[in-house]
Amino acid sequence: MTGRSEVPIGRRVAQWRMRRRMTQQCLADRLGKSKSWVDKVERGARRLDRFSVIQAIAEVLRIDPAVLLGQHPPPAGGDVRDGFDGVRAALARYGVFEASARQVPVAELRRRVGHAWLSFQHGQYAQVVRALPGLLDAVQLSSGSEHGELPVQAYRVASSVLVKLGEADLGWLTADRAVAAAGEDAVLAGAAAISIGQALRLAGRQRLALAATVAAAQRLTGVAARPAGDGVSSGRRAQELAVGGTLLLQAALAAASCGEPGQAGVLLDQAADVASRVEVVDDPYGTSFGPVAVELARVVVAVERGAAAEAVGRHELLIRRDGWRRLPAEYRGAYLVDAARAYLLAGDLSGAGRMLVAADGVAPAEVRLRPSARTLLAELARGHPAPPGVTRLAALVGLTR
């Protein structure tokens, strides 16, 4: 036993609470507990003997539950979630820059936004988080300019990575800023609505996510259904369809999560129809929309419905398709974590472990940084015996010793 593991868990709660600059009342409010409860935990007068409670505290403190349990030290170089404070500070500077603040040239801003998206699609989430404070400062200085697309895309990549890392409130705030920056541009507003839907789903507001994404999808897919030769360029129409189809997929996931499997099926069929009418050559909004994306969503919806055999069967056919390998690493890694849930639901622990190990090979941050994936990995690692490769991965990630 190390000296670190001998520190009482209540003391560790207090240390991390102060590190996050939170009062006992603030922590209590976020946990739905009383200040007295927090005080007793920190003093050791109340035992923390339920993992679900420890996990809830860890989520609020933005650390891994294993850190509270004293099972391993914080990652060398700091936790990626430490960077969220810089993101909050940048967002708080919105509209209050000094007159002497220098705007970033448009070409440089475009390069930085593009680099952030590329890093995100390669699953380099820690790198994106480190870049966000400076990027958000830059776009907030330029958000009143005519280049509305750049602020929208910057806020969207911020929201996307924050949602990945479990920060629902910050993800919602940055998505809302994207909506504001989009103005009257239908495609930009639709792209921002994708981020709104993702943030609301993470926050557990599935019905709001459903309403928001359906409304935005209807605006775009209705416009995109116009015949060729109507004055809308094929490139613009393809972007409308790709964004609108992605919104339909987000809506289907929200519908499945709030117990509306019939509506989820209808939305998936609508998305499949849209996908059959578009070939996305240029994908400036990072949707990766197409027939394969629709089939991926069908697997995830099947998991949400509890249809394990259907989900596994669809998955095993899907990954043989050529289009699967052309998806960004981030997209494939996230999907493989969902596929692991499908196998786990089917009672195939070996298959679930195989999918998580595959996800780590494609996009390591999907497994090593996302709270939901880490929870799934920890669950599989507790199996007797643990699936092949899972014990090693859990130890590498720091969930076991």
TrEMBL record:
Alphabetical list of CDD domains matching this protein: HTH_XRE
Q: Which residues form the HTH cro/C1-type domain?
A: 13-68
Taxonomy, superkingdom: Bacteria
A GO term for molecular function: DNA binding
Q: Name one Pfam family in it.
A: HTH_31
* Protein's UniProt name: XRE family transcriptional regulator
Task: Say which species the protein is native to.
Answer: Micromonospora maris
